[in-house]
Each structure stands twice: as structure tokens, then as C-alpha cells.
Amino acid sequence: MKFIKNIGLILCITGFAFFIGSIFVGDYQVTQQTFDEWINNKGVKSEIFIESAQIEVVGKSFNSFQLSSKIIELAENSAEAHQNNIQLWQTEGGQEERINEELSKVIWTSWSSTHKDFTYPLLQASIKSPVKENQWVSFFLTFGLAIIGGLLYIIPDFILLGPAGIKNNKLFQHSATKRGWGGIVTAVFFVTFYFLLYFFPDFIVNPILTTNKISLSLSGYPASQWFMYGLIYCSVMTVFAVKMYVKYRHNLYQVIRTTVVLFFQVAFAFLIPELLVRFNQPWYDFKNAWPLNYTFFFDWNIDSLLNSGHLGMFMLVWGIVLTAIVIPVMVYFLGKRWYCSWVCGCGGLAETLGDPYRHLSNKTLKAWKFERYIIHLVLVFAVVMTGATLYSYFSGATSIFGIDTYTIQSWYGFWIGSIFAGVIGTGFYPILGNRAWCRFGCPLAAYLGLVQRFKSRFRITTNGGQCISCGNCSTYCEMGIDVRAYAQKGQNIVRSSCVGCGVCSAVCPRGVLKLENAPEDGRIIDNPILIGKDKITLQ
């Protein structure tokens, strides 16, 4: 069995090596036809940019960094030239028409958007590489080997780990799970991946092409960076779900929970939206609720749904009903666990890939205070941004209180949607634990938490008389809750942050903790048993 594990590890590493190495394979040659199509699609009007690009780019060979940098350099130079003309005409006066025309020729650049919105389509169309010519083979050498290798590495643990039972052996000694060099290297890899995904997809054209045949089979469209990410997401969750089955095979709750959240991610967040596109319908994740789906009320999304017939109208209504009715009702009966631990893709990745890092969550009172402030501030930000968006949509105004609505959307998308949710939320698993985004940044988790705290039947009951203060529950609480402190006092756990994963109950050797849905009466115990140095008192 150890031999099989070693073979699996070699295959998995080989798959990763091919995937990462593909970034540096091939070159980029912009033909005249490709250039003309790109200029038309992007609506470029700057004759300065077009003429200089014709000379310096078309017909020449580059690597991805060189071509992207050259295009951006030419765009910035042309923008500077146009802006100089505008300044000159402004001093002359009476040149408004010429100024407006010249302004339309300016190519605005930004490091956070230019690479993905402007240069990426050109690089995608210009690449010449073995990956592009052998896409099925490339898929097998990357995804195929990594998935097969991962499964071969994990499945033998059914036998090698002995009898069923949770085993966290050497979790605090291994460098990858104790914030050692292994964890730091892993975090750097994750963060780099998310930066490339969100901001520099023009540097990962080959990795995206490894998924192109799958994308064409599902949606009928070439793969984008988001399709690649979705496939990676589902593949990683599937492999690590098997690891969860091995680790928690004695616990039916964990097995079922893992299966359900995997199903919702693969079916509702990946396959169904892609198939909808194949039938000329909007890409839509039926389980993704506002404010987590912060673009739901953006004008382009509303217009797209309204222009998509009866199904589009159903999607619009369902999105509103899901947020306003379904979520609070379900939280009342089941707690926020129904979404955060059973449905949400963010939670699904945290519970599978992130499981080895759950003990890294900060359990201090200071962290709890910070959590309560920051997550509700993000919720307020989401509400304000959405309010401004709807105001602009219905009024036709482009700004509110002097602030451009698109600017507010961009701020939220960059800081919350990209940096917080992706770069920090997932990239820092090995540093902050697996639920940093869910605990500190997710606005939907904040909304669910408010309902759970003040109006829900869910609680984790504790049998304080059985508690031996081993601390397993607190150690492995991914949300940073000091569960042991509640258990010692026999106090129900009614915390807005609790996602009801059930791991605290699973690791308890004495059966002290139990996840329950019961009448609200007696749910919050204000006068618990107090265990002091000299005596035990009941206040």
C-alpha cells in the first residue's frame, strides 16, 4: 500500500509540474488577421496605437510577458499622446467636439484589469504551443495525472490508518500544517495562483488551454480562466472529499455532509451553468445567493436575465426569493450550517482542501472582537454598493452623492471579491486556517449569522458533566470558537459564526457536544455553571 501511495505522489507531482511548466511553453505570434479581429472586438479607435502595434507587434514572436508588456506600453504611450492633444485643445478653447473625439481614443490601463480585459484575448488567440495543438493529451498530463495520483495517494489510507476514527497525527509537527516552511511555500503558491487568475490571465494561457476541450464539450465555448478555475475547484474538492471519507468514515454526518456539498458544487456551480450556456441561456448558479453573489443586481446581469425569456425571469425572481425568504427560513429551522457547510462552494473547499488547516484558526478574544467588526462592515459595504447599483439602474444616474457607481462596484469587486475572498480567503489557508473568508469577510455568512444568533432553532448543546477539558473541540474548530469554554460550563453554543460543521462533536471523546434543532425556549443559557479555582457555582 505504501508503494501505491508513493506512485500516487509521483503522478500527482508530475501532473502539477506539467501544469505549471506549461506556462513557459510556446510563443506568441500575432498575425494581421488576429490583430484586426482583436482591434474590432475591443473597439480600439486610437490610430497611434494601431500604427505602432502594426510595426512593433504584428508578425513578431514574443513570450507571454513580452507581448503583454509591449501592448500595455504602446497603449500607455498612445494614451499620453491623446491626452497631450486634449490639453492643448482645452487651452485653445472651442474645441469640444475634437476633445470628445480624442478622448474616445484613449486606452485606459490599470494593472488590476488591463491584463485580463485587454491583453488576454490577444494572447489567447496568438499562442502557438504543443498544449494548443494537443489539448486532450495536455489535459491528461495535467489534470488527469494530478487527479489519479491524488486518489492513489489517499485511498490506501483506508487500510494504512487502521481502524476507523479521526487521526490528526503529526498535525502540529508537519511543516505544512504548523505554519512552517511547507505552509509558507503552499501559501505563496496559492496566492500566486489567485493573482494570476484574477489579474494576469494573459500569463497562464497554456494552463487554460488544457481545459479547452472540456469547455467546448460542455458549453460549446472556448475555455476561459474562470472555466479552468471551476474545473480545478471541482477536481480538488472531489479528490479531497475522498480524503474526508477516509478520515471520517465512522461518522455518518460527515460522510453525508461531504457528499452533499460536493454534489452542489459540481452540479449547481459548474455543470448546470455551463450547460445553460450551451442552450443559449445565461450562466447561472442557482445556489449562489446575494450578497455572496454581489454582481446579481448589476445592470448587465439584470438586463441579461430580463432578455432571456421566462427562464431568465425565473432566475431573477429565484435569486431575490433565495436571499429574502429561503435563506432566513432555512436558517431558522436548521441554522446557517444548511448553507455554509452543506451547499456553499467556499465552505466546500474549506471543508475538503482546507481540512488539514482547521486547527490554525485564531481562538483569542481579540480575534473574536475583530471578527465581529470586520465581517459586519463587509456586509454594510455590500448593502451600500448594491443600494447604489439599484439606484443607478432605476434612476439612470451614474453616481450617488458624487461617487461614481461603477467606482463603488470596482472597489468592492477588487478588495472583497478578489483580494479578500480569493487571495486571502483561500491563499492563506496554511497561515490563517481554512475559514478565514467565511469567518472574517463573507457578507452572506454575516447575514446568516445574524439570523442564527437571534432567531433560530439551531444550537450545539453541551453536557458539561462529561467534559474532561481535553480541548479537542476548541483546537479543531475552524471558526475559532473556544468550544471547551462553553462545554465546561454546560452552556449551549449559540454563536453567529458557527457553521455547524460538526467536527467539534466528532472529535469529542466523551460525547459532550450535540448539534440540535429544537424549540427556541431555553436555547440561550444566560446563567451557566461557573467552574472556578475553588468551587463550582450556578449563578
Task: Compile the SSE list and pairings.
Blueprint: H1 2-21, E1 27-29, H2 32-42, H3 47-56, E2 61-62, H4 64-92, H5 96-103, H6 114-126, E3 127-128, H7 130-133, H8 135-154, H9 157-160, H10 181-199, H11 205-209, H12 212-218, H13 225-247, H14 252-278, H15 299-306, H16 309-334, H17 337-340, H18 345-352, H19 365-395, E4 399-400, E5 403-404, H20 405-424, H21 429-432, H22 436-440, H23 443-454, E6 458-462, H24 472-475, H25 483-489, H26 503-507, E7 513-517, E8 529-531, E9 536-538
Antiparallel strand pairs: 1-2, 1-3, 4-5, 6-7, 8-9
Helix pairs in contact: 1-8, 2-6, 3-4, 4-5, 4-6, 8-13, 10-20, 13-14, 13-18, 14-18, 15-16, 19-20, 19-23
What can you tell me about this protein's structure?
The protein has 539 residues and is mostly helical. The protein has 26 helices and nine strands. It is globular.
Helix vs. strand class? mainly alpha
First-to-last CA distance: 56 Å
Spatial arrangement of strands, main beta sheet: 2-1-3
How much is the average pLDDT? 95
Number of helices: 26
Number of strands: 9
So what's the overall shape? globular
Evaluate the radius of gyration. 26 Å
Strand content: 5-15%
Task: Tell me briefly what this model is.
With 539 residues, the protein is mainly α. The chain has helices at residues 2-21, 32-42, 47-56, 64-92, 96-103, 114-126, 130-133, 135-154, 157-160, 181-199, 205-209, 212-218, 225-247, 252-278, 299-306, 309-334, 337-340, 345-352, 365-395, 405-424, 429-432, 436-440, 443-454, 472-475, 483-489, 503-507, and strands at 27-29, 61-62, 127-128, 399-400, 403-404, 458-462, 513-517, 529-531, 536-538.
